[in-house]
């Protein structure tokens, strides 16, 4: 097979992405969980609220993509109704991001055309995955991936790369091929929720680790016929920096009514909007929007605030690398 070229996927002006956390509860307790109950609450949206908010965020003039998230979204008894409502309303794509447990018999309750199922797995075997995500999770998750693929669902997989599992990433392409997964999202460990509490070198990768390992494994997966998507992270010489908060439409909705435009801001009360009586109200005071306007040589302002150690400087204080928006992706298509 011809080796494909890596392509940066720019932000699309007529696209809207809606990341809807319908609850924050989860049956697992992953080491790097990004849910922060102090900021995101511990409630679930009701069936009626779910439908109202789905109406609120659909823009019929744009290609609107919906991702149901949690916590574990399949724990919500009304997820299935939410998927059907989103389809009727006209969302272009609907994805359910699941830890693999697929509660409420999800696969039997919807059709493959209703939603893409995106599973999370952080290792190619139980010995790697389960210390991160929980005992028995690898077996359950891979069994449900097989079931979903056999039923004809479009299945993706997200692997969050950290110091704990980077050495095992290279074994993932073969596993994905065997399982029948079509799309592979390689995600970088974030600095949100529980991950933020660890000392810097416990989970976080160095730029060298990321740049050496990720593109190589992505290429291996693409060579096996798998569509691979991974964050850009470091901008190359001459590449323009863009903050998605300024040039794209992304809404990260939490059940307590907070709506962020930047996932890196989710640990702070910096949300741009609050949903009040099913209306989207722009917040006053300091919000993430003010941060988006800051133009700094390092690129992403939030990365500079949260992870200054990731940026190196020359003798004159000029950054040697610029950090891209965390929402800027690269892809390799088979
Ligand atoms: S499955 Fe997701 S929500 Fe649940 S503990 Fe793991 S990271 Fe957190
Ligand atoms: S990650 Fe950085 S560049 Fe992207 S939206 Fe947030 S602040 Fe802007």
Distance between the ends? 8 Å
CATH architecture: Alpha-Beta Barrel
Give the strand tally.
15
Rounded mean pLDDT is 92
**Shape from CA axes?**
globular
Sheet with most strands: strand arrangement: 1-15-8-7-6-5-4-3-2-10-11-12-13
In which range does the helix fraction lie?
25-40%
Number of DSSP helical runs: 12
CATH fold annotation: TIM Barrel
Poorly predicted regions are: none
Ligands (ions, cofactors included):
iron/sulfur cluster
Task: Evaluate the radius of gyration.
Answer: 19 Å
Give the H and E element order.
EEHHEHEHEHHEHEHHEEHEEEEHHEE
Fourth-level CATH superfamily = Aldolase class I
Main sheet attributes: strand count, strand direction, barrel closure: 13 strands, mixed
**Helices and strands: which structural class?**
alpha/beta
Query: How many structural domains are formed by the residues?
Result: 1
Give a quick set of tags describing it.
334 residues, alpha/beta, TIM Barrel, 13-stranded mixed sheet, two-stranded antiparallel ribbon, 21% strand
What does this structure look like?
The chain is of the alpha/beta class and 334 residues long. It has a single domain (7-240, 328-332), classed as TIM Barrel, CATH 3.20.20. The chain has twelve helices and 15 strands. The strands form two sheets. A 13-stranded mixed β-sheet has the order 1-15-8-7-6-5-4-3-2-10-11-12-13. The chain has a two-stranded antiparallel sheet with strand order 9-14. Helix 4 links the parallel strand 4 (93-98) and strand 5 (116-120). Helix 2 packs parallel to helix 3 and helix 7 packs parallel to helix 9 (207-223). It is globular and about 60 Å long. Bound molecules: iron/sulfur cluster (SF4) (2 copies).
